[in-house]
Amino acid sequence: MTSASDSYKALAAAAAVGAISGAAAAAAVLALKSPSRPRPCPAVDAHLEQHLRSARIVPVLAIEDAGNAAELARAIYDGGFSVIEVAFRSADAKDVLREMAAAEPRAYFGAGTILTADQAAAAVRSGARFIATPGLNSEVVLWCCANKIPVIPGVATPSEVQEASRMGLSILKFFPAEVNGGTEALKAISAPFPHLNFYPSGGVTEKNLQAYLSLKQVIAVGGSWMVPQDAISSGDRELLKTLAHSTLQVARSVGQASNEKVATASLDHTVRLWSIETGDCLMTFIGHEDQVMCVSFSPDGELIATASTDKTAKLWLCQTGQCIVSCVGHSGPVYTAFFSPDGCNLLTSSHDRTVKIWDTASGSLSATLSKFERSIHSAVYSPDGQLIATAIDDPEVSIWNAKTLDRVKVLSGHEMKVFSVQFSHDGSLLLTASMDQSARITDVRTGKTKLTITGHDDWLRCAAFSPDSLKVVTASGDGTAKTWSAVTGRPLLSLVGHEDWLRMAAFSSDGRCVVTASKDGSARVWRSDTGECLRKLDGHKAWVRWAAFAPNSSHCRISLGSFG
């Protein structure tokens, strides 16, 4: 017979098994019913990263009265700040943001101190293009991911950083930065997570600004010291612009040219990496069978793309110089090769009258745009990757939908063929350089010319915006490069020293430097504020044709291409 004790033991065991089975079943049901967690959108995050990396400093505004918000937005943007964060600390914050975003559509506005998903939704409706939170708020993060809105959650501990990384986030707000140990703490916390970028805020001032910006893991900083409350209250536009310019000068002094590198590509079929400090060649990339026409860096700085008259484009590893992909499919010389903003695609243009889109992971051809009657000089993506601009052998420029490849707009105004095209940092403007000796800034939405820049004595081969789109640099057949105000068209500097005509010029990613490329076989790096030539790079035996600055660095990194 079975004892009572044995019976109780059996019943208890059965109950335990039942409980375990029930819990497992319940978990399975919940797993089936739970919606998949929304993930951040890589293209959306890349767009935010591009803006922050370009801006480097973000003014954080806590404004209670929307009365002068519009004028404040214009003053801060004209002072050089392209990204602005509005703190949601008052009942009128939505109105403030709405007024500022409407008054200065060229700026990239964000909303900070967001505590709930409802606040995030209200901020986006008011014009916010990214959300920042003081802590790792899963409700806000999930809402932003589900609606494809970039979000920067606040973190202060390794556990929070690890959780944010697990959620797929790539940009984190170290907050409050100084209270939590400043730069030393940030270095320690971020060390195990080299794939993440940090946006310190809270206690950042002009006294510790350089210490933060010199950290390679810091993509930008946020602060309010450059827009003090008394200046905001006074509404003094010129004072606000002066304070902004002063702050940006400090930011641009971070890092010295001696720490920078330059890559050059030449008619001798090679690409080389140089030290600006010593002028020594650090690495040589070998693989093309003919002239290299263009070179560009991937958004993460890991790859270089080259375009050649051997009818191919190639992808190379920056660290080793190894060619990992050859894009074969054009029937004529390839003139340009540029990455999409998310780095997933490569856009090439060719003498064969086609533009092609390639998958950068495999090198396979994704799409071909072949609606051209002449050879194509340039094709570039807009910053959000939604549009493509092309310049062919005539005065008009076409804008295309990047997904459907339908033409959405034709921009006119030049009298002769256009050699180069470039979007402004926010995609609202297009800069073109023409054989008619002028550069034009055109409103992409309306198609109207906003500014015409003239002053060279020969063709303009290239024109490029500064990172904040407040300046333009032009390269001409008259042997000079010039910088100009992109607001007024006023000339700023002439860069004189090359012995033959220039093929291109471009600003560094922080705006401190300009690189020029010339038929004289050299490239030169200049200070953009004084026009001083920092380095002459003279080693190739053919024309230097193109230049592209490497991203993901607190220093200016430059790559150059050449042709014959």
Automatic annotation (TrEMBL):
InterPro entries: Aldlse_KDPG_KHG (IPR000887), Aldolase_TIM (IPR013785), KDPG/KHG_AS_2 (IPR031338), WD40/YVTN_repeat-like_dom_sf (IPR015943), WD40_PAC1 (IPR020472), WD40_repeat_CS (IPR019775), WD40_repeat_dom_sf (IPR036322), WD40_rpt (IPR001680). PROSITE patterns: ALDOLASE_KDPG_KHG_2, WD_REPEATS_1, WD_REPEATS_2, WD_REPEATS_REGION. Keywords: Repeat, WD repeat. It holds the Pfam family Aldolase. GO terms for molecular function: lyase activity. WD repeats lie at residues 262-284, 285-326, 327-368, 369-410, 411-452, 453-494, 495-536. PANTHER family: F-BOX AND WD REPEAT DOMAIN CONTAINING 7 (PTHR19848:SF8), WD40 REPEAT PROTEIN (PTHR19848). This is HET-E1 protein.
